[in-house]
TrEMBL record:
It comes from the Eukaryota. InterPro entries: P-loop_NTPase, Sulfotransfer_4. Pfam families: Sulfotransfer_4 (PF17784). This is Sulfotransferase.
């Protein structure tokens, strides 16, 4: 584990919600890649909702600044910006979670 970058985002989850993102969050935090940003963060930090709303509306935002203090991120809304976040944190690894549709 790279301890030189304790404040550096190291893992970006690119999977959609309901693809095991809560389990991935728990695993990442247990493995030392926390704190992990998850959609639930937006319920407790409304100022972050505003930043992501601006990004979703097409405004330029500083993803390095938005993700500062997190070791990883999964789920919405960050999965929509995984490429932009990776540009801000180029050493971060990207994990794509998927699930079967259940249709046959």
């Amino acid at each position: 584990m790279d301890t030189d970058h304790a404040d550096y985002l190291r893992v970006i989850g690119a999977g959609l919600p309901r693809t095991g993102t809560s389990s991935l969050k728990a695993a990442l935090e247990q493995l030392g890649f926390g704190p992990c940003h998850h959609m639930a963060e937006l319920f407790f930090k409304p100022e972050r909702r505003i930043l992501f709303s601006r990004a979703l509306d097409g405004h330029k935002v500083d993803f390095y600044e938005i993700m500062k203090g997190y070791g990883s991120t999964v789920d919405a809304p960050t999965q929509s910006f995984y490429k932009e976040i990776h540009k801000a944190y180029p050493k971060a690894k990207i994990i794509l979670t998927v699930r079967d549709s259940g249709e046959k």
